[in-house]
Amino acid sequence: MLERGIARGDVGPDTDVRAAATLVAAPLIFRLIGELELPDARFVDSLVDLVARAAGTGG
After folding, report:
1. Given this model, what pLDDT does residue 51 score?
2. For FRET with 58, which of 7, 8, 37, 39 sits at 20 to 30 Å CA-CA?
3. Which of 59, 51, 58, 50 is nearest to 17 (CA)?
4. What number of other Cβ atoms are within 10 A of residue 52's Cβ?
5. 24: nearest Cα among 6, 57, 2
6. Is the CB of residue 55 less than 8 Å from the CB of residue 5?
7. CA 13 to CA 37: how far, in whole Å?
C-alpha cells in the first residue's frame, strides 16, 4: 500500500517502507505481548492516523 501511495504522490518519496511497516507492527505486538490486551479499533485507528501523518507528503 505504501509503495502505491508513493507512486500516487500521497506518501513521501523518501519514505522507508520497511520502517513504516515496523511502526505499524511494533505497537500491535507490544499491546498483545507487553500489555496482554487485544488492540481495539480506537487504538488501531489512532495508530494508522499517526503513521499516515508521518509518511504523508506534508501537503
Report:
1. 83
2. 39
3. 51
4. 14
5. 2
6. yes
7. 35
Mean pLDDT of 51-56: 80
Find the Cα–Cα–Cα–Cα dihedral 30, 35, 39, 45, rounded to 10°.
-70
Q: What pLDDT score does 50 carry?
A: 87
pLDDT tens per residue across span 2-48 = 888 889 988 888 889 899 889 889 999 999 999 999 999 999 999 98
Residue with cell 509503495: 3
CA distances from 17 to 20, 26, 27, 31, 57 (A): 5, 14, 16, 22, 14
